[in-house]
C-alpha cells in the first residue's frame, strides 16, 4: 500500500472512530486540531495558573509537572523529556557510566528492542541481552542464572508486546532481588505504570521504590499530547538533564504538552482503576461472544486482563479484519475493534488487535459487548465472501479456457 493509500485509509478510520457514538476508548490522536486545542484551552486553567509566563527551556509549568510526578512516584527528582525513547536512552546511558557496564538486560519484546530501530546500540553505545525469550516477564531464576554480567536490568511494566502482561507482586520483588544479588541497578520502563497499581495491590510509590529509576509517559494512558518524565535520585536526574541537552531534548517551550500532562494526572490517573476493573468485564464478554460465534478460533490475552489493555487474536488476515472493523464503525456507529496487525511469528493468516478500555468503555454492558461481537463477525464473514468472489474467475471462463478449438 502506497503512502497516499495509507493516508486515505487512516483518514477513513479516524473519521469513522470520531463519528462513532459508542467506543471503548477515545485515543488522544483521534481528534482534530481544532478539537484538541479547544479542549486544552478550556481545561488547562483548572490545573495551572494561566496568568504565569510560558516555560523557556524548562521551568514554569514544565517544572510543575516534574515536581508533581516525582511526588506521585515517591522519587527525589524528575526531569521532563519530549519522548520516552530519549528519556530511557539517557537513563540507561547514565547507569552504564555509573556501573561501568554498558550491558542492559531486558526482554526482547521490550519497547527499545521492538520499536526504536536499535537506538540503544546505534545511538547510545549500549549492548542488550535477553534473560528470556518467552512471551512473558522474566523470572527471578532467569535473572539470577543468566550466564553473563549486566549493569542494568530494565523491566517494562506492563510488557506491552506480550499482551500488556505483568508479573505478580511477589514475582516482581523476587526479580528485583535477583538483580540486586548481581549488583545490577534496576530501571522501570513505566510508560504504562500508572495503571499497574490495581494488579499489584500497591501504590505508585511502593512500586517505584523497587527501582533505581523510573520512566513514565503522559500520552499512553493519561490522554496527554506528548512527553515523559524520568524520575530517580537527584544526582542521576541532574546528570540526565545534561544528556537531555546533548540528545537534543532541551526544547524551547513545551507548555501545551506540560499542561495536558497535568490534566492527565488530575483527571485520568484517579479513574484508571475503574478502567482496569471494567476491562475484565469487557474481556470476558468478548470471549463469550466469540465462543458463541462462527469464528473457528480466537484468544483473548491475558484473560482476565492485567491492566485496562489486552489483546484479541483471530485467524484472519489483518486487512480483512480491518475492513470489517471500520465498516462496523461506519455503518452502526459502534467501534469495537480498531487496527489489526499480522502476527509477527507463526503461520500466516493470524492477526491480533489491542483493546483499550477507558472512560467511554465504562458505559458498555456485557450484553453490549456480545451484541457488538455478533455484528462484527457477520461483517467479517461478508468481507471474506466478497474477497472470495472477487478472486474467483468469471463464470464459464474455466470451461472456455479448456475447450478444444473447432476445426
Automatic annotation (TrEMBL):
Residues 56-287 form the Aromatic amino acid beta-eliminating lyase/threonine aldolase domain. InterPro entries: ArAA_b-elim_lyase/Thr_aldolase, PyrdxlP-dep_Trfase, PyrdxlP-dep_Trfase_major, PyrdxlP-dep_Trfase_small. The keyword ATP-binding does not apply. Pfam families: Beta_elim_lyase (PF01212). Residues 384-407 are annotated as: Disordered. Its cofactor is pyridoxal 5'-phosphate. Gene3D superfamilies: Aspartate Aminotransferase, domain 1 (3.90.1150.10), Type I PLP-dependent aspartate aminotransferase-like (Major domain) (3.40.640.10). GO terms for molecular function: lyase activity. Transmembrane segments: none annotated. Keywords: Lyase, Pyridoxal phosphate. Belongs to the threonine aldolase family. This is Beta-eliminating lyase-related protein.
